[in-house]
């Protein structure tokens, strides 16, 4: 790595001073800087962390009324990430999404334009605010069948149809690293005098290196939530909310953040946010050199294993197809298809088996057998996440695992020849991914959300196979990625019912469901 700049990490430095002073603790937390475990070998790992697990005492500031080191740390974060003001979040992007919705939607019945394939925290924010959501249909990438984000035309049409909407909320990039430039979308929102709100949980690193996509803030978004722990180097649950421009009520935002975050925030978590920003400031673009090199090494090595391919924008796929021999008919015809996105995070490897032997869950299990732990999988893809922390050794390990899988697991019992793999892939590409809700028009009618519970007498339990046409009475969330397949009050289509069955068969994990086996779901009784 190249030279390191001399930069400041105010909270980290304050916590180091706190620990070195060795003062007697007569304040919370009860573990007293970890000394309760001083004779316990089992606790050695956490005891070091506990030595800086402090609270709002003199010299350590207060997250909810920052005046000193926390204020300075947040100001440095704003400068680093291109915001006017930045806030540390110790409850992940979840609390950021809740706070920005509660800031923009202040009256029950306020209308918010929301892309449908959003994280469950967005739907929870709608419930807490009592807002009405106009759901926007995301663009579908026809090569992969994956949902990305609504087009600018869709957003303009929805803004025209609902001129009293309080804002537009998008999620970009998606879990697969797919996205597009938001400049035109931001201009459309501002022309309609509403803020563009972006859940950029998977894009905290965007805009920090020339080889990375541009950030939502640089495109003009008004408020952006980023999971600093996902693609940068903060501890899990460490995130940030960034704001710019006059369209977000800053005082109200601070009040909402105080509502949804703990009044006893974790100092190790906040220090990790300070440190993550410090690392970027200290090393600049060089912070990403080793990680990007590891990702490139994996891509190049994968060329020797044509069975496994990576998801990529159509234009990029076309260029690579021309330079590669033996490419399948499906990819040769890619130029005729519509791509739902134009940027791909170079750190996100979305891998699939072109032979169709291993579905995404099966490939994930095989990789885990060889000590490679993916981020997530769906019916077809496995998401493998590289970051600025990844090394060439990581890339080599992953490639060796795929070599073993390729050698150990051959064709299905139909004994197809390799040249038939392209036709199999063409069939798979037309099978849209599970995480999409793609049966809707460009935008929905307003959907009222609230906290009123559904009375048991209003519900009944039906087999998933018989649920098509019924109204869901519970939220159905495959996790990861945490994007609800259904929300309470949404009609179960035949396609969704089939997807639930398929996911259950493949061993997907679920949140929010009453029947963890996913053999049945709760629906509203017929009137």
Describe the structure.
The protein has helices spanning 10-21, 44-50, 69-81, 92-104, 120-129, 152-161, 183-191, 228-231, 250-260, 267-283, 289-302, 314-322, 329-332, 360-369, 392-408, 421-429, 494-506, and strands at residues 85-89, 111-115, 132-136, 168-171, 178-179, 196-199, 223-226, 239-243, 308-310, 343-344, 348-353, 376-377, 382-385, 447-448, 459-463, 477-478, 510-511, 520-524. By secondary structure, the protein is of the alpha+beta class. The strands form five sheets. It has an eight-stranded mixed beta sheet with strand order 1-8-7-6-4-2-3-14, with helices on both faces. The chain has a four-stranded antiparallel beta sheet with strand order 9-11-13-12. It is globular, with a radius of gyration of 24 Å. The model is unreliable at 322-337 and 412-440 (pLDDT under 50).
* Poorly predicted ranges: 322-337, 412-440
Mean pLDDT: 91
* Largest β-sheet summary: 8 strands, mixed
Number of strands: 18
What is the count of DSSP helices, taking H or I runs of 4+ residues?
Answer: 17
Helix content: 25-40%
Strand order of the largest sheet: 1-8-7-6-4-2-3-14
Radius of gyration: 24 Å
What gap, in angstroms, lies between the N and C termini? 67 Å
Structural class comes to: alpha+beta
Layout of secondary structure:
Elements: H1 10-21, H2 44-50, H3 69-81, E1 85-89, H4 92-104, E2 111-115, H5 120-129, E3 132-136, H6 152-161, E4 168-171, E5 178-179, H7 183-191, E6 196-199, E7 223-226, H8 228-231, E8 239-243, H9 250-260, H10 267-283, H11 289-302, E9 308-310, H12 314-322, H13 329-332, E10 343-344, E11 348-353, H14 360-369, E12 376-377, E13 382-385, H15 392-408, H16 421-429, E14 447-448, E15 459-463, E16 477-478, H17 494-506, E17 510-511, E18 520-524
Parallel strand pairs: 2-3, 2-4, 4-6, 6-7
Antiparallel strand pairs: 1-8, 3-14, 5-10, 7-8, 9-11, 11-13, 12-13, 15-18, 16-17
